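Justification of resources, computational component.

The compute hours requested in this renewal are based largely on the per-chain cost of generating structure records like the one below. Each record pairs the submitted sequence with a full structure-token output. That output is archived, and it is also reused by downstream analysis tasks.
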Amino acid sequence: MTDHRPGLDPAVAEVRVAVRRALAGCATESTVVVALSGGADSLALAAAVAFEAPKLGLTARAVTIDHGLQDGSRDAAASAAAKAEALGLPALVVRVHVGTEGGPESSARNARYAALRSAARDAGAVAILVGHTLDDQAETVLLGLARGSGAASLQGMAAAGPLPAVAPRDAAAASGARAGADLDGIRLLRPLLGVRRSTARAACDAEGLAPWDDPHNLDQRYARVRVRRAVLPVLETELGPGIAEALARTAEQLREDADAFDEMIAETIEDIVEHVEAGISVSVGALAANPAALRNRVIRHVVASEFHVSLTRDQTLEVARLVTDWSGQGPIDLPGCRARRNGGLIEFTARI
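The structure output for this chain reads:
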């Protein structure tokens, strides 16, 4: 689908088409919220939503989160809100407190998503749209590869899905969050995952929109900034163009595989899981009958669903040995729970 209106800038058209496709799943007369930082990606997104939403019978508004992490953040947030209002989007600025748990990036992300959820709930919104681009997806895949957490960490970001109650710090936790309830019915949409960052900026230029350039995007202390400014350019130079697109395709294919695994787990898990006092148990025989990849996913899924924590690969394999290499070993302490073999069951119980 392309937009062939005479005189329409190609970058603006590409962004609008991406947004139109994302909004098509929202019920008529519902409300959507755009997360607007004021940067080029979110500003291009906001402009496209302001144009497309009314045509689909949707009400749209913008929310800007002021993290208060740098001088002038209040002015930058106010400027972003003013730009949203000029586009025809009612705007709200929310100032959040960023703690230190999990590091500054993780803490800021959690505070941001909590504030966006609250604002969307207050507005009666069905979806929150964020401006992550194809370049952000490629960076996420590379960061996942560096963590070495397996396929789950290489799936990148989903184009659409439930908004987690607490934003997970890694892709494995995100997988667990996807398995949980779609709290409040609010969806997280990323319309621009197939759009390059340069296209979003070109769309802003074409529409006369002046984006804010966050100084944190130049701060080499952040791993994502180093990937963006050093790693990806080197890969493009040494391996040729198209690396970002290839990484994004890889994420999409792995997410399709993960979705297939999730369906298999959903079909299987009711027959092999039962509740026990202060926890949940899984049949040893059923786990042993499954291939290792599916067995390990079941273990991670059970722990994430019941105790809202994610297991590392080493922790998962240690639990799996209670099935495949049983020699009378004792309980295994895991984040938030304890696993032990009791006859033909692997029992997971809360740690007190």
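The chain has two domains: 10-132+190-234, 258-350. The longest strand covers residues 59-66.
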